[in-house]
Amino acid sequence: MTSSNLNIVKGGPAEGSTVVLIHAVGLDLTYWDHQIEALTEHHHVVALDLPGHGRSARAPHSGSIVDLARDVAMVIDDLGSRPVHVVGHSFGGMVAQELAISYPNRVRSLTLAATAASFSVEARNYLRSYGSAVSAQGMSAALPSLPLSLADRTAQRRPHLLERLTRTILAMDPEAYVAAWTEIAGFDASDRLSGIQCPSLLLVGDEDRNTPPDASALLAKEIAGATMVVIDGASHMLPMEAPEHFNEELTSFLQVVDTRTTPDPTYYPGPQSRTRG
Known about the structure:
The protein is α/β, with parallel strands linked by helices. The chain has one domain: Rossmann fold. Helices cover 41% and strands 16% of the residues. The chain is built from ten helices and eight strands. It has helices at 33-39, 65-79, 91-102, 121-137, 152-157, 159-170, 174-186, 213-222, 238-241, 243-259, and strands spanning 8-11, 18-22, 44-48, 84-89, 107-113, 200-205, 227-231, 272-276. It has an eight-stranded mixed beta sheet with strand order 1-3-2-4-5-6-7-8, sandwiched between helices. Strand 6, helix 8 (213-222) and strand 7 (227-231) form a beta-alpha-beta unit. Helix 2 (65-79) crosses helix 3 (91-102). The termini are far apart.
């Protein structure tokens, strides 16, 4: 697949540093709406639909995380010669990890939101059974788990978010969705995280049931100089649940990276962890 096969939207000043946004499984680039609005003031923003998601056709390749990272690397190549800031959410964060490990010269900084580098055996079995249920029953089998991706308070006070997620998931290609969950269940980058040498920021909600703070803590431990921020009152859909806090952390991080003349993985005090209320 060439990058031209992916649905991409661009915005913000062309002369600004470039930020590439990679969404979660089953979602699409529109779920970055709050981030695009905040980032385009100073950055050139590129949001993409992964293959089989949103307006992108299914991939001619296997759809593996390795292949998806290659797709994103091709998008970056098409943008020019400069490395870019990469932001990945959940499954997009796994693609972003693979990208930073396999194509380090393309990545200026890495922001990983609500994601993981590995799973326990029990979690892998659950993820595979979830994918099998969707394969057998269709996308409606994915709906019971959706409320768990939002914090309880979010689900109660902002029911439109669950409605939006429901509509998006029901419109998803089941085969592409199941293939992605198969990749998630098998993903393990834990022994390669030391290969990530760019400045890195880890964002996670304190109520995340899917990829809890412990999963980000592993990333923070293994990635040199990484900083982990736990955001109160948010769960797995962190970018849409807590966009103000998410954007403040992200834009501050990018500003610090952009003010440095040379890449330095230890520029941001770390490893450290803090909670954002």
